[in-house]
Specification:
Shape: rod-shaped
Number of strands: 5
Number of helices: 11
Distance between the termini: 67 Å
Strand order of the largest sheet: 1-2-3-5-4
Strand content: 5-15%
Radius of gyration: 39 Å
C-alpha cells in the first residue's frame, strides 16, 4: 500500500510532460473542448457525463504518457487514442479530436518515413471509423477536422520533434567541444608549466650548487650566484602566473638569454648562430619554448660540454637546430618524456615538423612556417 501511495505521489508531483517540451503541450489539451460542442445543443445524461469525465481522465494520462513513450510504446499510444475515438464516435462526433491527437503522437517516432506512414494509418482508421456513423451530416462533421487538421498537425509535430532532437544533439556537441577545449587548455597549461618550471628550477639548482661550492672560497662570486637565483626565481614566478592566466608570451630573445645563462652555469660551451627576422607570435612562442626545453634537456640529461644553437629563415620557414655532444649515440638513447611530447604537440598545432637525430650527440631540428597563424 505504501508503494502505491509513493508511486501516486511521484506521478502527481510531475513533471507530467518532459520539461524540454515546455508548457505548450498542456495548452493543446484545450482541443478536447471539441468534445463539448454537442452538449451546447443536447444535454448529456448522467451516465454519458460520467463516461465523458472518465474518458478525459484516461486520455489525459495517455496523452502525457505519449511524450515519454519510446519505440513500440508510441504506436501503442496512437492506437489507444484511435480506440477511444472509435468508442465515442457513434455518440459524439467530437471524438475526431482523439484521432488528431493520435497523429500528433507520431512525433515520438524517430524515422520520418515511419512517422508519415503512422499518420496515414491513423487517417485510414478514422475513415473506417466514420462508417459507424449513420447520419451523413454527422459523418461530414466528424471527417472535416480529420481531413483538414490531422495531416498538418501530425507532420508539424514530427518536424518540430526532429528539430528539437537536432537542437539537443547540437547542444550536446557544443558541450562536448567545450569540454574538449577545456581539457586541451589544461594540457596546454600543464605543458607550459612543465617547460617553464623544468628550465627555471634546473637553472636555480645549478646556481645553488655552484653557490654552495663558492661559499667558503669566493664570497663575492657566491653572492652573485645567489642574486641570480633570486632573479631566476622571481622570473619563474612571474612566468607561471602569466601562464596560468593564459596571457604568457615567451619571447625568443628572453629564451635565448635564459639559454645562455643555463648553459654557462652548467659549464657547457655555447656556439650561437641566430638570424634576426620577423616571426608570427604563435611561431615565436613555439620556437622559444622548444629552445627552453631543449636547453633544459642538455643541462639535465645530456652530459654535454658543447651545444650549438642556430635559427635561420629558409624559404619562409623558420628552422631551429640545437645540437650537443652529449651521451646520445642512437635513437634508443632518446628519452621521450612529457617535455618532448608537449613540444611535438605545439609544433604540430602550428603546422610545423620536429625531427630528432642521435649520433655522437643529439640534434633537434624544428621547422615552422614563419607566418604561422595565432
Amino acid at each position: 500500500m505504501n508503494r502505491i501511495r509513493q508511486g501516486l505521489d511521484r506521478v502527481l508531483a510531475g513533471p507530467w510532460i518532459p520539461p524540454e517540451h515546455g508548457k505548450l503541450p498542456y495548452f493543446w489539451l484545450l482541443s478536447l473542448g471539441y468534445m463539448g460542442w454537442k452538449y451546447f445543443y443536447v444535454p448529456p445524461s448522467a451516465l454519458e457525463a460520467a463516461l465523458l469525465v472518465l474518458t478525459l481522465v484516461v486520455f489525459v494520462a495517455l496523452y502525457c504518457a505519449s511524450f515519454w513513450a519510446r519505440g513500440w510504446q508510441v504506436l501503442a499510444c496512437m492506437l489507444a487514442c484511435c480506440l477511444i475515438g472509435a468508442l465515442w464516435v457513434r455518440w459524439n462526433v467530437g471524438a475526431a479530436t482523439f484521432f488528431i491527437f493520435a497523429c500528433a503522437a507520431a512525433a515520438g517516432i524517430l524515422r520520418l518515413r515511419r512517422a508519415v506512414l503512422a499518420i496515414a494509418g491513423v487517417i485510414v482508421l478514422a475513415l473506417l471509423t466514420s462508417l459507424l456513423i449513420a447520419d451523413t451530416r454527422m459523418r461530414f462533421l466528424f471527417l472535416m477536422p480529420i481531413l483538414t487538421i490531422s495531416l498538418p498537425v501530425g507532420v508539424g509535430s514530427v518536424m518540430d520533434a526532429r528539430l528539437r532532437r537536432s537542437r539537443q544533439a547540437l547542444v550536446r556537441k557544443q558541450e562536448e567541444v567545450e569540454h574538449l577545449a577545456t581539457i586541451a587548455e589544461r594540457e596546454r597549461i600543464s605543458r607550459d608549466l612543465h617547460d617553464l618550471l623544468g628550465h627555471s628550477l634546473s637553472l636555480i639548482a645549478l646556481k645553488a650548487e655552484l653557490a654552495r661550492k663558492l661559499v667558503h672560497r669566493d664570497a663575492e662570486s657566491c653572492a652573485r650566484e645567489i642574486a641570480d637565483i633570486e632573479t631566476s626565481a622571481r622570473q619563474a614566478l612571474a612566468e607561471v602566473r602569466a601562464a596560468v592566466s593564459g596571457y604568457r608570451e615567451s619571447g625568443l630573445a628572453h629564451a635565448l638569454a635564459s639559454a645562455r645563462a643555463s648553459l654557462a652555469a652548467a659549464d657547457v660551451q655555447l656556439h650561437e648562430q641566430v638570424e634576426r627576422f620577423a616571426l608570427a607570435p604563435a611561431a615565436e612562442n613555439v620556437v622559444a619554448l622548444a629552445l627552453r626545453e631543449a636547453v633544459t634537456n642538455v643541462v639535465r640529461h645530456a652530459g654535454a660540454t658543447r651545444c650549438s644553437v642556430s635559427l635561420a629563415l629558409e624559404h619562409g620557414v623558420a628552422v631551429l637546430r640545437i645540437a650537443d655532444d652529449g651521451q646520445a649515440r642512437s635513437p634508443a638513447d632518446i628519452r621521450h618524456g612529457n617535455g618532448l611530447s608537449g613540444m611535438r604537440e605545439r609544433v604540430a598545432a602550428v603546422g610545423g615538423k620536429l625531427a630528432l637525430r642521435a649520433c655522437a650527440g643529439l640534434e633537434l631540428e624544428l621547422r615552422i612556417p614563419a607566418g604561422a597563424a595565432t
